Amino acid sequence: MSRTMTAAEREDFLAQPHIGVLSVASDGDRPPLTVPVWYAYQPGGNLTFFTGTQGRTARKTALLERAGRLSFCVQSPEPPYRYVTVEGTVVGADRSPSAEDVAAIAGRYLPEDVARGVAEEETGNASGTFVLFTVRPDRWLSADFG
């Protein structure tokens, strides 16, 4: 049996460094694009994540900018199973994020020195490799099977 998380439980869970799964409306007759991403979240604030602007990731960026809204799910793959889904509105798309902004997200998943190296390499690239998206949470879904 599951229960809905309280607001505090939901926000604490989302603030942990899980992998998020982004889903955004697609173009044409294709189903929604759904991909894993690294993200950052501070309780009570907005959700942030970055995408690329080249190759396969360029489609994700274009779809996010066109749709302006998304669903974002974070789950715990081990018992007790829990998940939080955010339905939100894109309120920012920074095409020139600072190395500090990128390192703040990458540093949740990589050692600090590696995260800093990735951030400096990618943000120093003249082709503008990353777009930092900011999403305002509009609706929440959650479950705790514990």
Automatic annotation (TrEMBL):
Record-level GO cellular component terms: cytosol
Keywords: Oxidoreductase
One protein family per Pfam: Pyridox_ox_2
Keyword Oxidoreductase listed: yes
GO function terms (MF aspect): coenzyme F420 binding; oxidoreductase activity, acting on the CH-CH group of donors
Record InterPro entries: F420H2_bilvrd_red/Heme_oxyg, Pyridox_Oxase-rel, Split_barrel_FMN-bd
Keyword Membrane annotated: no
Protein name, per record: Pyridoxamine 5-phosphate oxidase
Organism, as annotated: Amycolatopsis suaedae
